[in-house]
Specification:
An 8-stranded parallel barrel has the order 1-2-3-6-7-8-9-10. Strands 4-5 form a two-stranded antiparallel sheet. Helix 5 (about 140-155) packs parallel to helix 6 and helix 7 (about 255-265) runs parallel beside helix 8. By secondary structure, the chain is α/β, with parallel strands linked by helices. The chain has 9 helices and 10 strands.
Length: about 350
């Protein structure tokens, strides 16, 4: 979600996966053809609210996806999964070794997906903070953020099905500050020899609707030696674009809120990924989702794909959850079905 949220919300192959695709000059009119990468977030790793000196217990306060979850969603046509986790779990002390046991847990969760031929996006779900301290401020330097990503990318550089999402929803910081940190992280990732795609989020909660107003034009100064990155935006359809209300403004609000961001990407020859979106199980939600996804399919020169918010075994009755309850599937799975990618990642053209 984009504003007013806590981490617990109601709250190719090397070539195929790593090479940046060619960029068209105009959007082809091909509605109802799924985008290359369609999937969901699988929440749980970002739960637990780490505090200084207090490490949450795995299995009690936070969890990672299971093979069963990947198998279920892959059977529906999903081929990409964004896996949120807490930076502090892996690296409680800045610029120190990643905690071996916690890194192994994350590696196992990633392998459960990539071993099935799926793409997994690593998502430090920290809002550009470490224990609440903003990256680029006096307590958490851009160099510390780069150190974290260098260590993490070094671990996963041999797995071409892993993408690197730099950070979930930076906010309440100067965009110049976020740009410096992002460029430092990109440089650290590439220094390890990792060639995978990097997703660069925007400032101000990464909202597509507010992308330009938030000053994210500065992110055109991202420097990636591999030229294999895309911008990650998020978009919800309630009154304040936060995703905290069980409402959808109107049936065309999704395509409307994406429009200026898409135009910005096309003008600047950039590609994008929608890392979070969701609608409640209502008729207006269903119609609005069709409108938004069809617009993205028409604008496929810009959009690589998307991950729904969210899935995960611990959501309970959360309005956007698409994890089934026993044998009962959530309505939103049906809403998404016509737009899901049936082609396995391993069979895609580069």
């Amino acid at each position: 979600m984009i504003v007013f949220r806590t981490i617990n919300r109601t709250l190719c192959l090397s070539i195929m996966l790593c090479a940046a695709p060619a960029f068209a000059s105009a959007a082809p009119d091909t509605p109802n053809t799924p985008l290359p990468y369609t999937g969901t977030n699988i929440s749980g790793g970002e739960f637990g609210h780490p505090k200084l000196g207090v490490a949450p217990v795995y299995g009690k306060k936070f969890i990672y996806p299971t093979e069963k979850e990947y198998r279920y969603f892959a059977s529906k046509g999903m081929n990409i999964f964004r896996i949120p986790f807490n930076w502090e779990i892996l690296q409680p002390d800045l610029q120190k070794e990643l905690v071996p046991a916690e890194l192994e847990r994350l590696k196992d969760a990633v392998e459960a997906g990539t071993g099935r031929g799926l793409v997994v996006i690593l998502d430090p779900h920290n809002y550009a903070r470490h224990y609440g301290r903003v990256i680029g401020g006096p307590d958490v330097s851009a160099a510390a953020f780069a150190d974290f990503w260098g260590r993490l990318a070094g671990t996963f550089k041999g797995n071409p099905r892993v993408w690197f999402g730099l950070m979930n929803e930076p906010n309440k910081m100067p965009t110049e500050q976020w740009l410096e940190a992002a460029n430092a992280a990109v440089a650290a990732i590439r220094k390890t020899g990792a060639k995978q795609r990097i997703l660069v989020p925007g400032n101000s909660w990464s909202g597509a609707h507010s992308w330009i107003k938030a000053g994210n034009d500065l992110l055109l100064q991202i420097r990636d030696p591999a030229n294999n990155y895309a911008f990650e935006a998020h978009q919800y359809l309630d009154s304040d674009s936060s995703g905290t209300h069980a409402e959808v403004v109107r049936s065309t609000i999704g395509s409307e809120r994406l429009r200026s961001f898409v135009a910005w990407c096309r003008k600047n020859r950039q590609q994008a990924f929608l890392g979070e979106f969701g609608v409640p199980p209502t008729e207006t939600g269903r119609v609005a989702l069709q409108d938004m996804l069809r617009s993205m399919e028409r604008d496929r020169d810009v959009w690589l794909g998307y991950t729904w918010w969210s899935a995960g075994a611990w959501w309970g009755d959360y309005m956007f959850s698409i994890s089934p309850k026993g044998a009962v599937e959530k309505p939103q799975i049906g809403y998404l079905q016509p737009h899901l990618q049936k082609t396995p990642v391993s069979a895609m053209a580069p």
